[in-house]
Amino acid sequence: MGFFVGKDREVRRAYGFDEIALAPGALTINPEDVNASWTIGNLKIDIPIIAAAMDGVVDIKFAQKMGKLGGLAVLNLDGVQTRYKNPAKILNEVACAPPETATALIQNLYKEEVKHELIAARVKEIKSAGVICAVSIVPKKAAEYGPIVQKAGADILIIQSTVTTVKHESSAYESLDFKNIISNLDIPVIVGNCVSYDATLDLMETGAAGILVGVGPGAACTTRGVLGIGVPQVTATVDCAAARDYFFKKTGKYVSIITDGGMDSGGDICKAFASGADAVMVGSLFARAFEAPGKGYHWGMATPDKNLPRGTRVSVGVNATIKQILVGPANLDDGSQNLAGALKTSMGSLGAKNIKEMQMVDMVIAPAIKSEGKLLQKTQKVGMGKK
Amino acid sequence: MGFFVGKDREVRRAYGFDEIALAPGALTINPEDVNASWTIGNLKIDIPIIAAAMDGVVDIKFAQKMGKLGGLAVLNLDGVQTRYKNPAKILNEVACAPPETATALIQNLYKEEVKHELIAARVKEIKSAGVICAVSIVPKKAAEYGPIVQKAGADILIIQSTVTTVKHESSAYESLDFKNIISNLDIPVIVGNCVSYDATLDLMETGAAGILVGVGPGAACTTRGVLGIGVPQVTATVDCAAARDYFFKKTGKYVSIITDGGMDSGGDICKAFASGADAVMVGSLFARAFEAPGKGYHWGMATPDKNLPRGTRVSVGVNATIKQILVGPANLDDGSQNLAGALKTSMGSLGAKNIKEMQMVDMVIAPAIKSEGKLLQKTQKVGMGKK
Amino acid sequence: MGFFVGKDREVRRAYGFDEIALAPGALTINPEDVNASWTIGNLKIDIPIIAAAMDGVVDIKFAQKMGKLGGLAVLNLDGVQTRYKNPAKILNEVACAPPETATALIQNLYKEEVKHELIAARVKEIKSAGVICAVSIVPKKAAEYGPIVQKAGADILIIQSTVTTVKHESSAYESLDFKNIISNLDIPVIVGNCVSYDATLDLMETGAAGILVGVGPGAACTTRGVLGIGVPQVTATVDCAAARDYFFKKTGKYVSIITDGGMDSGGDICKAFASGADAVMVGSLFARAFEAPGKGYHWGMATPDKNLPRGTRVSVGVNATIKQILVGPANLDDGSQNLAGALKTSMGSLGAKNIKEMQMVDMVIAPAIKSEGKLLQKTQKVGMGKK
Amino acid sequence: MGFFVGKDREVRRAYGFDEIALAPGALTINPEDVNASWTIGNLKIDIPIIAAAMDGVVDIKFAQKMGKLGGLAVLNLDGVQTRYKNPAKILNEVACAPPETATALIQNLYKEEVKHELIAARVKEIKSAGVICAVSIVPKKAAEYGPIVQKAGADILIIQSTVTTVKHESSAYESLDFKNIISNLDIPVIVGNCVSYDATLDLMETGAAGILVGVGPGAACTTRGVLGIGVPQVTATVDCAAARDYFFKKTGKYVSIITDGGMDSGGDICKAFASGADAVMVGSLFARAFEAPGKGYHWGMATPDKNLPRGTRVSVGVNATIKQILVGPANLDDGSQNLAGALKTSMGSLGAKNIKEMQMVDMVIAPAIKSEGKLLQKTQKVGMGKK
Fold first, then answer.
1. Which has the closest alpha carbon to B220: B287, B165, B274?
2. DSSP 3-state assignment of C196?
3. D104 reaches A (C-beta below 8 A)
4. Residue in A with minimal Cα distance to C6
5. Counting Cβ atoms within 10 Å, is residue B387 exposed (0-12), middle (13-18) or buried (19+)?
6. What domains can be seen in chain A, in order of their start residue?
C-alpha cells in the first residue's frame, strides 16, 4: 500500500482533487430527481454547501442570504465582526492595502480585543432574518463563548483551528475538555480541523455532531509552505469518512464529515462528496460574490498570527451574486457558479440518488486536463504569425 | 491493479493521450500499403476520421467537402442549423462576441425552437452532393426526429449527449427505449457518449452500430471542471474496446468504437486507434479550417445550457483548408494538418497493415516531451542577454 | 513490471532524461584519471560525443574542427551540402526566413536533386584536414551512395531514417538488403534509428558496427506530436544496450549503442552513458556554435518532407565556439558548454573509470528540479513589490 | 521496491521536498513546550538551522549575529574572505555585474590565492563576539588549514566539497586520510557532502561528528544539469539517517545528519527533520537578509570552477533582518521568515516534543499544491475582462 521514500521508510501516497476524476457508469438519473440535502442534529439543510468562516467572505447580510437560498454561511466570531462595532470600515482598509503591506496590516487590525457584547449581537442579527445561524470560535475560547452563543440563539457552533486534537499537551495551560464543553450545550457542535482516522475518532467520541476535514489545502492558506504540513483533500476525506462509518457501526451515531478547503470549482465539490463528505465548506468561491464583505479579497484565520502568519490575502475579484454562485443560473462555464446545480447534475450523470450514493460513485486517478491550454497556446502562435 | 486513495478505497489510474506514446518495433511497412478504411453498417469510409457535430465546425458545405475527400462530417440537428433558416448570420454573431459575453450570447441564441422542416431540408442539402450524410440529435428527440431524418435520406444517425446510458431514471418523463428506436430505423445508429465497459455493453445490446467514447476530454468542454466528471481517453477507449471485443465474441456482431474528443493532433489520433478505436471524432482540429462556419471559434453542445453551461467558446484561429487538414499536404509541422497521412505514416512506422493491427501496436507510458520548450527558453535568455 | 491503462491492456512505463538523476556512492575518482574514449571498427575516438548529421549544424569546416578536438561530426549527404554547390547561400536563406514560412521554404529547397559528384567532393574536403570522416545517407540511397562514399575516403558510414528496421514490407519496391550492403563495404557502418530490443538485434545481425537509438525525442523533431510515436531515451537506451550485451555474449562481437537525440545538456549526456550508451549524438547543443552553418537555427531530417513535415526549425542562438562547447572552458554554467569535461567530472564523482563502468552507475527516478525557478519567481515578486 | 526503467534495469524512486507533506495525527503540543535544540560534540545549539558557507551569505558580522540569536553560521575559508583583505569591495563587484558576465567575473576573482594569515584572522574576528565559530574548508586543504583553524579558536570545522568520499582514486596525488586529519583535531569535524548509506557509513568511521547530506539540490547549484548528478533531499536524508542509526547501534556514537541544500521555506526545513535530519544548512533563505554581504545575490562553491562552473549567481533580493528570518516575527506569510518559529509550530501541530520525535512523524507523498496559483490566474482573467 505504500512507497519507500528511502531505506525502511514507507509512506502513503495522498491524493488531491486535481488528481482524480469521477467516472460515469451504466445508470443515469434525471438531476431533478436527486436529493442532495444534509442533516445535522435536528436541522435539515437543502444544499450541503457551507460558506467558510472567513472575514472577507461572510458578514451578517451574507449569512442571511445564504440561509434563505437553502445553504449555510458561518460567521467568524474571532475576527473583525466581534472586534469592531463597524467592521465594514476595517474590511475596506484591508481591501485597499497594497499587496506588500497587507499581511502586516491584517496582523495589526486583529490586535483589537474581541467584545462579548458583539458576539451576542451578531448572532441575533443573523437570526432576525429567520435563517439557521452558524458561528465559529477558536478552541481556547470555546468554554467562554459557547454559552453566550447558544443563549443568543445560534443553531450551530463551530470550534475550529488549523489542527485540532482531543489530546493536547501544554505546560502553560490546561487542555481543553471538548467532551464537557459539548455536553453543556444543546446545539450541534462541529469541531476541526483534522485529517486522520484516529484524530477523527477521538473528536467523534467527544459528542461532536460534525468534523471539519482539511489541513493545508485552502487557497488562502499557506500552512504547507510555512509548516510543511498538509494532506490533500481526497485522501483526508476518504480517511475521515472511514472513521465516521466505523463510529456509526460501533455507536449508531452518524457524525457528519465536512470537507473544508481546497475546492476551486463545482467539480472539486463533487469530488469531495465522492470521497465521502456529507457537506463541504468553501471560502474562495464565495469571496467572488458581489455581496462578500471583502470586495474581492479574502484571507484565512491564520493570516493575523503575529509571529508566524500563514495565510495570504488572496485577490479573486467579484463577478456574480451569491444566488448565481449557489443556485445559478451560471453565466460563466468555469465551474465557479451554480454550485448546487453542478452537484445535482453530477449526481444525475453518475447515477447517485442522494449524497450517500454519491459517496460511492466510481472515481479514477487521472491527471488534470490541460487540453484547452494547449489549444489556446496554438491559437496565440497562429495569431502572432499573422500579424 | 489499483491504488489506494485512502483507507479501503482502491481506485484505478486512468491515462490520457499526453501520457502515452507509441513504440516502433522490428517491422515497418510502406505507408502507401496500409489500409486505414472503416466500415459501419454497409458503408465503407476511406478515412476513419469524423468531424464532430459542432455548430462552429460543420455546416452543409463542410459536410459535403469532407465526404468528397473520403472522410465524414456530422451535422448537428439540435443547433443553429435547425433553429435558424439563415445560420450563417447567427454564427457570425457568435464569432464577433467579446469573450466575457460569449457564453451568455450562445445561451440566448439557442432558446430559438428547432424546426421540423429545417431538419429534413439540411439532410437533403448534404445528400445533394452525393456524399454519405451523417447527422446528430439528442436522446430526448431521437424518437421524434429519427424517422424524419431517415426519410430525408440520411445515411447515419447519431444520438448523442454528455453521458448516455440505457438505464435512466426519471419521475418526470418516461425513459428512452433505445432498442425500439433503433430497430425502427434501417440506417446505422451511433450512440454515445459513454466511457465504461458496462455502459458500452448495454448500448451495444440495443442494436447500435457504433458507440461514441468520451466524457469530459474535449477542448471545448468543461465537464470535468464543472461536474468533476471525466475519464481520460486512452483508458476509456481501451475499456470500451474490450466491451466491443467481448460483444463480438458473444454475438458475432462487430460494433464500432469511435473515440470522441480530446485529440489535439495527428499524434493523438494515432494513439486513439492504438487504444482500440475503429474511428475517431474530432472537433477543434477541423475548427481551424477556412471553410469552418465558426470562423476560428467553436463550442460544445453543453455550452448553451441555460442553468449550467459547460462548454467554452474556444478561439483556435483558421489557417488551412479542409483538404490540407484531412489529407494534406501539410505546411505546418505541429501535427494539425494531413491527419490521414499522419495516421498512415504512423501505421507504417509501427508495422500495422490495417486498423485492426494498429489497435494492437506497442504503447508505453511516457511523459509529454517538453524538450523543445526548454530549448526555446534557453534561446530567449541568450537573445535577451545580447540586446 | 507493467501498468494497466485499461482492461487487459498492460503497458510499460518509459523514462526520459528529465526523470532520472545519477547517484554518487562511496567511491570517487580524480576526473583526470578517467578514460571516456570510444572505439568503433578500428577507429579510436577520444571523446564519444558526435555532432548530428543536421544541415544547420555540420558543414565541412565544422566536421574538421570537431575531428581535430578529438570528437566526431557527421555530414548529411542527403541535404543542402550535396544538393547545392554553394550551400552557404541556401543556409542563409533558411536562417532569414520568418517562422511561419520556414517549414514551407525548407520543403521547397530540398526539392533540388542530390548530385553524385558533390557526394565524393564533400568527403574529400573533410578528409583534407586529416580527420576521421563520417557521413550519413538515407536507407533507400545506401546501395547507391555507399560505394561512392567509401571510394572517396570516408571512414564511417551512417545509414539513418526516422524508424529503420531490417524487416520492411512494400508492394512498390524491393526491401533493402542491409546485410548485403554492409558486407560489400570495408568501413564501419552505423544504422538507425530504432528503440526496441528486437529491432536492435535484427540490425546487429546485418553486420552493423553501431546502432543509433532514438525515435521522437529530439528538440528539432515533432515525430511524437505528428505520429504519436516516441520512446523516451533512458528506456530506449537501456533496452537497446541490453540487446548489445546479449549479442556480444552470443557472438563475441561488440556493437556500439549510440544514443541519438533528446539531450539538452551535459547532464543529459551523462545520463545517456549511465543508461548504457557507448557514444552519443547531439544536434541542438552544437547548433549554438559560432561555427555552425545554421547561424543559430537547426532542423531535422524529416522537416523537408513534402506531405507531412515532422521537424521544426528551432532557433537556439549562438554563444560559444565548438571548442568551448566540446572541451571548454565553459563560461556558462547551464550545462551547455564543456560537454567532455562534464562527462569526465561526472564519471569521477560517480567513481566510474571508463564508459563501461559509467554504464553501471546508480541512477534514481527523480523529478526534474525546479528549485531555482521557484526562487527566481520569489525574487521577481520582491522586486516588483519594491518599485 | 524499485521500478524498471528498461530491460533488467531496476532503479529506486527518489523523493524531494515538493513531493511530500507532513500529516498531523491525534496529538498536538503547545509549540512553547517543544525543544528543537541540537548537540554536536560538547556544543549545544538552540536552533538547529545553519547558514551555509557561501560568500554571498555569511561574513564576520553575519556569523556573529546568527550565533547571538541561537543559531549557527559557517564562514567559507576558501572564498573571498581569505583571498582578499577587503572582501566587501569584491562582493560589491559581483553584485553589480550584469547576469551574462557574472559567472566569468566570479571565475576570475577566485583566481586570487588564499592567505594563511587571513584564515586565522577571520576565526578570531568571529570569536571576538563570544559566539560559537564554525568555518569550512575544501578537502584538499584540510590537512593544511585544520590546525590553523583550531589554533585560532574555531569551535567546529567543516570539510566540504560537491561529492566527498573516504575512498578516492587519483594517480596525481595521494588520497586524503580523513581519519588521521580528524583524530589530530580536538574540535568536532563535519564532513560532506554525500547522499548514500554506504558513503555515510564510511565517513562516520573516520570519526566525523556530523555528515552533510545533499548533492545537487540547492538553488545556487547546477550540478544536476551539468553533471546529471543529484539525489532529491527527502530520500538522501532518509538513507543517510538510516546509516546514522545503524552506526549508533553498532558503536554507541551518535553522529549528526545535517541536510544541506534544497530548502526554500520553513516548510521544507520541517520536512528535512521529518526525513531524519538533526540539523539543516540553508543558503538562499539567508541570502535575503539585509545583513547578507551578497546584497541579494548568492552563489555556490562550484561557481568559480574555471573549466566547468556549476553554480549560478542567483538574485533573491533582500527583505528582512537575520532576526526576522531566524526567529521572527514574520511579516511575510510565504515561509521565508521566522524559520525557528515555523519549526516549533510544526512540531507542536505534529505532536513532536523534540527533534528525535520530529524524525518520526507521519509523512505522505503528495503533489505540490498549486491552488493559489489557479485562483490568482482566474483573478487576472476577471480583471482583464473588466478593463
1. B287
2. coil
3. no
4. A364
5. exposed
6. 15-386 (3.20.20.70)
Average pLDDT of chain A to the nearest whole number: 90
Q: Given CB atoms, is B201 within the 8 Å cutoff of chain C?
A: no
Give the residue on A whose Cα is nearest the Cα of C98. Answer: A385
Q: Which residues contact C290 (CB under 8 A, 6 or more apart)?
A: C318, C320, C321, C322
Q: Pick the catalytic residue: A221, A244, A270, A310?
A: A221
Q: D22, A162: Cβ pair inside 8 Å?
A: no
Contacts A–B by Cβ distance under 8 A: 233
- Does A313 qualify as catalytic in the annotation? yes
The rounded distance, in Å, linking the Cα atoms of B80 and C310 is 38
The complex scores an ipTM of 0.91
Q: Which amino acid is at C186?
A: D
The predicted structure's pLDDT at residue A369 = 53
User: Under a CB-based contact definition with an 8 Å cutoff, are residues C57 and C51 in contact?
Assistant: yes
Query: Which D residues, 308 through 367, put their C-beta within 8 Å of a C-beta on chain A?
Result: 328-335, 338, 341-342, 345-346, 349-351, 353, 362-367
Given a contact cutoff of 8 angstroms between Cβ atoms, the answer to whether A189 and A207 are in contact is: yes
CB contact under 8 A, B225 and A382: no
Smallest CA–CA distance from A13 into chain D, residue: D365
Task: Name every chain C residue with its beta carbon within 8 A of the beta carbon of D319.
Answer: 382
DSSP letter (8 states) at residue D252: S
DSSP-derived secondary structure letter, C160 = E
pLDDT of the residue at C220? 55
Give the separation between CA A62 and CA D115, rounded to whole angstroms: 70
> Distance (Å, rounded) from C-alpha B270 to C-alpha B266?
6
Q: How far apart are CA A122 and CA A125, in angstroms?
A: 5
> Rg of chain B over CA atoms, in angstroms?
21
- What strands, in cross-sheet order, belong to the sheet with D363-365? A3-6, A9-13, D363-365, D20-22
Question: Is B19 within 8 Å of B368 (Cβ atoms)?
Answer: yes
Alpha-carbon span C234 to D228, nearest angstrom: 13
Per the DSSP assignment, residues forming a β-bridge with D141 are none
**What would the grid cell of residue B133 be?**
450524410
The phi, psi pair for B381, rounded to 5°, reads -60, -45
Integer Cα distance of C223 and C225 in angstroms: 6
The pLDDT of residue C222 is 77
- Beta bridge partners, A289, equal A320
Q: Are D217 and C13 a contacting pair at CB < 8 A?
A: no
Examine residue D193 and say whether the peptide bond preceding it is cis (omega within 30 degrees of 0): yes
Q: CA-to-CA distance for B303 and A330, rounded, in angstroms?
A: 11
Q: What is the DSSP letter of D229?
A: B
The pTM of the whole model exceeds 0.80? yes
CA distances from C78 to C157, C158, C160, C303 (A): 13, 11, 10, 13
- Band of residue C213 on the pLDDT scale cut at 50, 70, 90: very high
Choice among C221, C240, C244, C288 that is catalytic: C221
Residue B245 confidence class, pLDDT cut points 50, 70, 90 = very high
Residue owning grid cell 551574462: D100
Q: In whole angstroms, what is the distance from residue A266 CA to residue A281 CA?
A: 12
**Chain B nearest CA to D222, separation (Å):** 15
Q: Which of residues 141-200 of A touch B (CB under 8 A)?
A: 197
CB pair distance less than 8 Å for C21 and D170: no
Which strand (E) or helix (H) includes residue D65?
helix D60-68
pLDDT at D82 over 60: yes
pLDDT at D383 over 60: no
- Cell triple for residue B54? 459542432
**Amino acid letter for position D194:** C
Contacts of B382 in chain C (CB under 8 A): 288, 316-317, 319
3-state DSSP call for residue D221? strand
Among A367-381, C233-247, D173-187, the range with the most confident prediction by mean pLDDT is C233-247
What is the torsional sign of CA C104, C105, C106, C111? Answer: positive
